[in-house]
Specification:
By secondary structure, the protein is α/β, with parallel strands linked by helices. The protein has helices spanning 53-60, 83-89, 106-111, 123-136, 153-165, 183-198, 210-216, 239-247, 253-261, 266-270, and strands at 13-24, 27-38, 42-46, 68-73, 76-78, 91-94, 171-175, 202-206, 219-224, 227-233. Helix 5 (153-165) packs parallel to helix 6 and helix 8 runs antiparallel to helix 9. The chain starts with 12 loop residues before the first strand and ends with a helix. Residues 53-54 line the site of magnesium ion. Residues 254-274 are annotated as: Disordered. Residues 15-250 form the ABC transporter domain.
């Protein structure tokens, strides 16, 4: 279902995918995928289990390379052949498992593998930089000397997002950033996504949670069975229409229950588990 990008008139386009295909043996995980992300735009990517969301993230983060199709980054055609190549371009990914070291402190995790001085660790500079970064994100972290193990899920997500920003990326990809979080922590992470938008980053947020998508995304791109199945401006689309695009039906159990409850949101809460 080819569609004109409806992104952010005026904001420069950061990323444009066209005709992206990726198969694993006989399984076609992505077929003819399009995706556009502009500066300062939050694009939610939604879809049922197996729709291809994680595969798309992995193509963009250099974990998998696409079999065919084009990726333009800031108007230039690029190949993303490795995670290092993605980072070098300015695409940072916060994977769902966050990949933080529980026994290390916040500051150690932030700078793991990229200690400020190439010759020696400058603990003071790293600590100052950590505070600056967390303050810019309005993050609620008690101390940068706290071990990760002592932080809440939302605080960990914050640290992982902060770490992704150290390379000064143009695009930040968040894979299910709120899936494991409670209400207050979810609100904190959604605030963080808004900070990223204010700072001009393009954000791609994978999500199962329609309330989160409605709360924070500018656009929502629906994948279904490895294909594009909708590209909506969030303010113009109902939760039911998004769900219909996800399930491939305009009348289905989920949307009927949703309509019956008259909330348009309730049942999506129950499909959050991923
Ligand atoms: N490394 C792999 N090898 C073989 N098949 C894979 C591999 N990764 C993904 N697939 C297949 O590709 C399809 C898309 O999977 P993907 O993980 O991208 O879906 P998803 O949208 O992220 O789903 P979920 O919501 O369950 O995380 C599925 O059929 C999956 O089984
Ligand atoms: Mg996935």
């Amino acid at each position: 279902m080819p569609s004109e990008p409806i992104a952010a008139a005026g904001s420069p386009q950061l990323l444009s995918l066209r005709g992206i295909n990726k198969s694993f043996g006989a399984v076609a995980a992505l077929m003819d995928i399009e995706l556009d992300v502009a500066e300062g735009e939050v694009v939610a990517v939604v879809g049922d289990n197996g729709a291809g969301k994680s595969t798309l993230v992995k193509v963009l983060s250099g974990v998998h390379s696409a079999d065919s199709g084009t990726i333009a980054f800031e108007g230039r055609e690029v190949t993303i052949s490795s995670p290092a190549a993605a980072q070098h371009l300015g695409i940072a990914t916060v994977f769902q498992d966050l990949a933080l070291c529980d026994n290390l402190t916040v500051v150690d995790n932030l700078f793991l593998g990229r200690e400020i001085s190439p010759l020696r660790l400058n603990e003071v500079d790293m600590e100052v930089r950590s505070w600056e970064l967390l303050r810019q994100l309005s993050a609620k972290i008690p101390s940068v000397r706290t071990p990760i193990a002592a932080l809440s899920g939302g605080q960990r997500q914050t640290v992982a997002i902060a770490r992704s920003l150290l390379g000064d990326p143009k695009i930040v990809i968040l894979d299910e950033p709120t899936a494991a979080l409670g209400v207050a922590q979810t609100a904190e992470v959604l605030n963080l996504v808004e900070r990223l938008r204010e700072r001009g980053h393009g954000v791609i947020m994978i999500s199962h949670n329609m309330a989160d998508v409605k709360a924070v995304a500018d656009r929502v791109v629906v994948l279904r069975l490895g294909r594009n199945n909708g590209d909506f401006r969030v303010r113009d689309v109902s939760t039911e229409d998004i769900i219909a695009a996800i399930t491939g039906a305009t009348d289905n159990v989920v949307s009927r229950r949703s309509a019956a409850r008259g909330t348009g949101q309730g049942p999506t809460q129950e499909t959050d588990a991923s």
